Amino acid sequence: MAKTLLITAASGTVGTHLVDRLLAAGHSVKAASRTVKHGASGHVKFDFADPSTFEEAIATVDAAYIVVPTGTTDLGPVAAFIDLAATKGVKVVLQTAIGVDASDDIPYRQLELRVENSGARYVLLRPNWFFDNFHTFWLQGIRTHDLIALPAGDARTTFIDARDIADAASAALVGNQFDGQAITLTGADSLSYQEAADVISRLRNRTVRYEAVDTEGFTAYAQKTGLSATHAQFLAPVFYPVAQGWVGADNGEVARMTGKPPRRFVDYFSDYAARFR
C-alpha cells in the first residue's frame, strides 16, 4: 500500500537517492529542505531552526525520515520535532551514526533515546562512514593536493555508499519488519584510508597520498580545503573510534534489510570517477 512519507534533508547525500527510490515505488513524498522552489510539487520548506515549518511538514504523513544536518551542534530543535512526530502518530526513522551507542552521553545517542521513549514506532539507522565523503568533503584535497589528511591512523573502515543507506531507509520507512530496532549499516570492503587512496590512485591514474594527522592538523588542513572551522572541529573527535579500529567490520545488515550486498569501493569510484578528475 502506498504511503505518504516525509524526508528531511531531501536534497542531501542520502535524501536525494531516498526520494527517488520512494517515488519510483509509488509512494507520496514530502521532500523537505530549507530552500524550496516556489510551487515545486512534492516539496515542503523545512528547517529545524524554524519551528514554524514543523506542522506543515509533518501533517498527513505516515512516517518520517529524520537526519541531523551536517555540523549541527544544537540538537534541541531536532528533539522537539521528534516529539511532535510522536504526538501525531508518525513513525520515525532516525539516521545517526555508527558507534553512538558507546555512551548515553553522546548527543546523537540522546536523540535515539528520545525516539525510543517517545511512544512512536521507530527504526534507528547508524551508518558507517560514507564512500561519498571522498567526492564531497575530501574532494578538494584530492584534486588540489593529491592528498587525504585525516586523524584516522592506519585503521580500517567498512565505508558505505549513500545509495545503500537510502535502500535500507526505504525498507525501514515502508515496512514494519525492522520496527523497534537499532541497526548499524556497514559496507562490504574493510579498507584503511591508505588502501582507499591506493584504489583512487590506480583508477584515477594519478597518485593520491594518505597522511595520518592529529586532530589539530586535520582541523587546519580541512579548512584549507573547503570545510568550515565549525564543521572541521565537529568532525575531528568523531574520528576517534575510526583510529581505534572500531568501525572496520561488515555486519551484513545492508543485505538483511535490502536483500542485496552493499556496493564495493571500486564500484562507487567507477560511478563517480568524473568528480575526481
Q: Could you characterize the architecture of this molecule?
A:
The protein is an alpha/beta fold and 277 residues long. It folds into two domains: 4-127, Rossmann fold; 131-159 and 187-248 and 263-277, UDP-galactose 4-epimerase, domain 1 (Alpha-Beta Complex), CATH 3.90.25.10. Helix content is 38%, strand content 17%. It contains twelve helices and eleven strands. The protein has a seven-stranded parallel beta sheet with strand order 3-2-1-4-5-6-9, sandwiched between helices. Helix 1 packs across helix 6 and helix 7 crosses helix 12 (265-272). The model has no long low-confidence stretch (mean pLDDT 93).
Poorly predicted runs:
none
CATH topology of the largest domain: Rossmann fold
How many structurally independent domains?
A: 2
Briefly note the structural class of the backbone: alpha/beta
**Percent helix:** 25-40%
Number of helices: 12
Succession of helices and strands:
EHEEHEHEHEHEEHEEHEHHHHH
| CATH architecture grouping of the largest domain | 3-Layer(aba) Sandwich
The major β-sheet equals:
7 strands, parallel
Protein name: NmrA family protein
Domain NmrA-like: 2-231
Keywords: Plasmid
Pfam family, one: NmrA
